[in-house]
Design brief:
The structure is a homodimer of 386-residue chains. Chain A folds into two domains: 9-110, Sandwich (Immunoglobulin-like); 127-383, Alpha/Beta hydrolase fold, catalytic domain (Rossmann fold). Chain A is 23% helix and 26% strand. The first copy, chain A, is built from seven helices and 19 strands. Chain A binds chain B through residues 15-18, 33, 35-39, 85-91, 93-94, 96-97, 102-104, 120, 122, 125, 127-134, 141, 153, 177, 206, 214, 217, 220, 259-260, and chain B through 15-18, 33, 35-39, 85-91, 93-94, 96-97, 102-104, 120, 122, 125, 127-134, 141, 153, 177, 206, 214, 217, 220, 259-260.
């Protein structure tokens, strides 16, 4: 991997030895594709404006068939993108792929300057376990990822609290430990004594009972259809109690408590999630407060009007009782995601009026993307189990 | 996922809910791409003839911009492929990606009939751990995958033998537990009592000492350049002792023995690998027989002429001594990979003439691809540590 004289470096999200895309010192990014037979090539950022700008950015062809473009300085963080080859959205062969948009998708990491809280540092590291388990709810084997803290294998009979942490729409159980670097964030917090050693579990937030067809998803394209996605989310909510919610309560928690050295009570169990995962988290935890005492919604929450008397079967109707029972209700957004920021303010107004204790966290300068949620985890995790 | 009236089913290697590619009852495969703006689209199998035939297979466009082709019945197993969109090799957005050809690459699984030894079955499952560890040889953090058998977390102080199992050229530490389903193969063998419960370690076979630039690899294209790849392999061999070989001996084995409940002696340590990984395995084990007693080369071995008096510093020069020391020397190939089959015969002739005990295994009908190596593991693993 080469640093050029101009100070540019290959992105850490590149494939082995790929020199492009390169991140330039000013945060601009240079993309390149070897495609002599293509008529047009462009860079298409994921999701409207995810920090790479809106695009598409047409690339220029040189005499040897190399197409190149440098796009304006990007917001730091992880950004999904595609290349449009003669108008067809495809992954960049120079990028590793990350599960988003319901499929492996190119991504680029634009680093923040002078920040190392998500690096692989010289500290003790936990382990991320990829594990099959049987779900009675779906009648199928499912794959989860389980982070165990650095001392898990050497601490004898010591038992640990558990954080169930969920991805967003179109992603899966791999998101938090690839795009989100959650294992490294926790390693670093634990090494500094800023976070209780904990077990983190990442499931895949899609689940159907036997015989139920998966919901038809909005069709895939360079620019996702926001209205269709919203309608899809509403329909998902209706199915949550018998789908993924049932998997968490009936299959996942019992499996984790049976197979890991957990402290298997509500005071040592947290759930959080980003975007769709935040939406799921609030619905699952609020309707199962006998199971969870710590709740986090990262850029995600209830859709529609907020009526605390009826929302989640009235879980928050009695503020005094709720505040006594729930040790942490944490919500966040980024300043560059207008819709989620506005939703957060609406919810917060309702909570303040009712007197519901909560933490609200705003990530400066970041949009509906992973750096927002990494910062959320970095603030949320130290508040757990203390 | 829908079975159509024609009996076709979506490939298990597809992304979530993708209906194409579909495997038909006769083993032929139907590919489809939504690409209204493309001028030509074709299916390009990986690596010349990997079981999908040589290709490329031009796809036909319908009025709505869907491109489709059905290719002839394929050899069962896992096959890499790309789509050529106006001549540019890209991944199929309907396929999951698998690390091969030095990057995430589309792959399709064409199932064998009436075979379940690599399925997720209703048996106890082990865990695949993704783990960071620090390499002194490279001066960098590296990521490994470690399979622990189903009873590992509940067996108290029980200690286990270790199999170090390596991927092929252009792949990485994820290959054996994604493309290769090694965890499921071992789960199933262990459940039947046909294999000793063991720990399996998968490293990434690329490593350079600090300051050494990675070898320039043959350029990527739909059809890889075989001659350039061969020259590249020869150069890699020269660097093995100070590169990946040093990582295994100086960094990896000590890390595993310090962090897992291993039986840390040569009689309980095996190494095997496929293709480039077999080539590496033979060189690393034969020159470190104080560390390894079980050796497997899956479709990979020494290049050039075979002279047992000098090969691997003469490790096999004295057959009696070698046979006493090495408990298993196992080599395999597939009938549809002519070059490796011929190499295997050459080596076997030399071993037979010298009187070196060994096992040779031929996979019927399979080429230089994963089903060959999955069958190799399925035969190899039960012979270990007994």
């Amino acid at each position: 991997m080469t640093q050029f004289c101009d100070g540019s470096v290959p992105a850490v999200t590149n494939t082995r030895d790929a020199e492009y895309p390169r991140v330039n010192p000013d945060g601009s990014v240079t993309f390149r594709l070897d495609a002599a037979t293509a008529q047009t090539v462009a860079v298409q950022p994921g999701g409207g404006d995810n920090g790479l700008g809106v695009g598409p950015y047409p690339m220029q062809r040189d005499d040897e068939g190399l197409w190149t473009v440098t796009i304006p300085p990007a917001v730091p963080g992880f950004h999904y993108y595609w290349l449009l080859v003669d108008g067809v959205a495809v992954n960049d062969p120079n990028s590793l792929t990350y599960f988003g948009y319901n499929r492996p998708t190119s991504g680029i990491w634009v680093p923040e300057k002078d920040v190392d809280w998500y690096g692989p540092l010289d500290v003790p590291h936990g382990v991320v376990r990829c594990q099959w388990y049987r779900s009675d709810v779906t009648g199928k084997w499912r794959q989860i990822r389980v982070y165990t803290p650095p001392d898990y294998d050497t601490s004898g009979d010591r038992r640990y609290p558990v954080l169930y942490l969920q991805h967003g729409s179109g992603e899966d159980q791999t998101g938090w430990t690839t795009q989100g670097r959650a294992d490294l964030i926790l390693d670093n917090l634990i090494a500094k004594g800023q976070c209780e050693p904990l077990i983190m579990v990442n499931e895949c937030g899609y689940a159907e009972p036997p015989g139920q067809e998966p919901l038809a998803r909005p069709s895939f394209a360079g620019q996702p259809n926001e209205a269709a996605m919203a309608a899809y989310m509403v329909e998902r909510a209706k199915r949550l109690d018998t789908g993924f919610g049932a998997v968490v309560v009936q299959d996942l928690i019992p499996f984790i408590d049976a197979n890991y050295r957990t402290i298997a009570d509500r005071d040592h169990r947290a759930m959080a999630g980003l975007s769709m995962g935040g939406f799921q988290t609030l619905q699952i935890t609020m309707t199962n407060l006998d199971l969870f005492a710590y709740i986090g919604a990262f850029s995600g929450g209830p859709w529609g009007a907020i009526d605390l008397d009826t929302l989640y079967d009235g879980a928050m109707a009695d503020a005094v009782a709720f505040n006594e029972r729930v040790k942490l209700l944490w919500m966040g957004a980024g300043t560059a995601e207008a819709r989620q920021l506005s939703r957060l303010e609406t919810i917060q107004d309702a909570l303040l009026e009712r007197g519901i204790a909560h933490v609200a966290f705003i990530s400066q300068g970041t949009a509906h993307e992973w750096l927002t949620w990494m910062r959320h985890l970095h603030d949320f995790a130290p508040r757990l189990f203390r």
